[in-house]
């Protein structure tokens, strides 16, 4: 019984899912870190940009939270961008190397067995 190598589409899907997971982790980290400043839903207009970039308001929040002994490490938006790049790499590679229709439908045949399934 031969095991088939993972198709490019399966690898691309795995890469895209890993990117989404990293971005979800970054979002949770961002939310938990900035929720320590005036509560989770206050000043969102100032906190939301901190998810993807570091502007003066983000630096201000980070410097003030250290004075209040905030829990956990300071959020770093680079994690969000790593997740985004991983997700996009998976999506682009899936478009560049699409699987055959039979591979996508699970209709691939085992060549050692004369094309039959077991």
Task: Please tell me about this protein's structure.
It is a single chain. The chain has one domain. 56% of the residues lie in helices and 0% in strands. The longest helix is centred in the first third of the chain and has 27 residues. The model has no long low-confidence stretch (mean pLDDT 75).
How large is the share of residues in beta strands?
under 5%
Described by the principal axes of the CA atoms, the overall outline is elongated
Radius of gyration over all CA atoms, rounded: 22 Å
How many strands, what sense, and barrel or not for the largest sheet? Answer: none
Number of E strands: 0
Helical coverage, percent range: 55-70%
Structural class: mainly alpha
- Distance between the first and last residues' Cα: 8 Å
Q: Low-confidence parts lasting 5 or more residues at pLDDT below 50?
A: none
Order of helices and strands: HHHHH
- Quickly count the domains: 1
User: What is the average per-residue confidence, as pLDDT, rounded to a whole number?
Assistant: 75
What's the helix count?
5
């Amino acid at each position: 019984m031969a095991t088939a190598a993972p198709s490019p589409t399966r690898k691309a899907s795995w890469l895209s899912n890993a990117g989404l997971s990293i971005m979800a982790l970054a979002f949770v980290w961002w939310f938990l870190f900035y929720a320590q400043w005036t509560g989770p839903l206050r000043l969102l207009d100032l906190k939301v940009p901190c998810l993807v970039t570091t502007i003066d308001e983000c630096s201000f929040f980070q410097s003030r939270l250290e004075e209040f002994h905030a829990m956990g490490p300071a959020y770093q938006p680079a994690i969000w961008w790593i997740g985004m790049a991983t997700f996009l790499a998976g999506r682009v590679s899936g478009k560049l190397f699409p699987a055959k229709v039979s591979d996508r439908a699970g209709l691939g045949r085992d060549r050692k067995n004369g094309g039959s399934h077991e």
